[in-house]
Every structure is written in structure tokens, then in C-alpha cells.
Specification:
With 141 residues, this protein is of the alpha+beta class. It is built from four helices and five strands.
Length: 141
């Protein structure tokens, strides 16, 4: 969990002005379990600072993702999710029933962990893998 003071330091370290919406959004993502979506983040941010518009939440999420303080994941058929675990090229497990998302560490070795059969002139620096299945709670009939 990140305190408001820590979030201010993180924002400044990434060249951003410290604003109440950015601080609340970063703190909300840090405090919420799992990989929260925008609605959960907005709800928690409002609990932290009171009034914050939906647009301010979206703008803050975009800015925090752009500078690398947050990572956005987009599981197919699900709203965008956010996490504070950035920069380590980990992957995700997603439950097809309830949408729960869990982090999965990559196999050992050099980055990127997987390489395409044809790179088409690209220099691959990151691999994003989503494993789909049913979480333990949704395996119960």
C-alpha cells in the first residue's frame, strides 16, 4: 500500500505535477486488491478525496500508465484493468467465468520470454501473455 506522501514522491520522480486526482487514483490502485477496473478505482478515489469526476479518473489513469507508474491490461471481453506492478514483463491468468485476474511470473531466461516465429523487422522488447481458464472458485459446479 502506498501513502499519499509516497504517491507525491512517485509523481514528481516521473516528472508529473502532484494533483489530488493523480494522487487519489495512484493510491486507489495501490490499495485495491487484484487488478481493479476504472469503476472500482473511481469509487475508491472518491472515498479518499471526495469529489472526482469520471473524466479526471480516466485522465489520471492514462497519464499514470503513460509514464510507467501503472500498467493497463485489457483482457478480451472485460473492462481495462490496472496494476502497480510495472516493468517486469509478467503475465496474467484470467478466469473466463468471473473475470478474476492473477499475476503469473515469466519463466526464467532473458527478456523477452517468448519471441515470435517471424519478427517482421521488429525489435521485440516485451511479451504479453494472457492465460484463460477458470479460477478455483468457478471450478465448483
Amino acid at each position: 500500500m502506498v501513502s499519499a506522501g509516497d504517491t507525491g514522491d512517485q509523481l514528481r520522480a516521473h516528472g508529473l505535477r502532484v494533483t489530488a486526482p493523480r494522487t487519489a487514483v495512484l493510491q486507489a490502485v495501490s490499495e485495491l486488491p487484484g487488478h481493479p477496473d476504472t469503476e472500482l478505482i473511481a469509487h475508491r478515489a472518491r472515498a479518499l478525496i471526495g469529489r472526482i469526476s469520471r473524466q479526471s479518473v480516466y485522465d489520471s489513469l492514462h497519464t499514470l500508465t503513460r509514464v510507467g507508474l501503472l500498467r493497463r491490461i485489457d483482457p478480451a471481453g472485460s473492462p481495462a484493468r490496472y496494476e502497480t506492478r510495472v516493468g517486469d514483463n509478467h503475465h496474467h491468468l484470467v478466469c473466463r467465468v468471473c473475470g478474476k485476474v492473477e499475476d503469473v511470473d515469466c519463466a526464467a531466461g532473458d527478456l523477452p520470454r517468448l519471441v515470435p516465429s517471424q519478427a517482421h523487422g521488429f525489435s521485440v522488447v516485451e511479451t504479453e501473455v494472457t492465460f484463460w481458464g477458470r479460477c478455483s472458485a468457478c471450478q465448483v459446479d
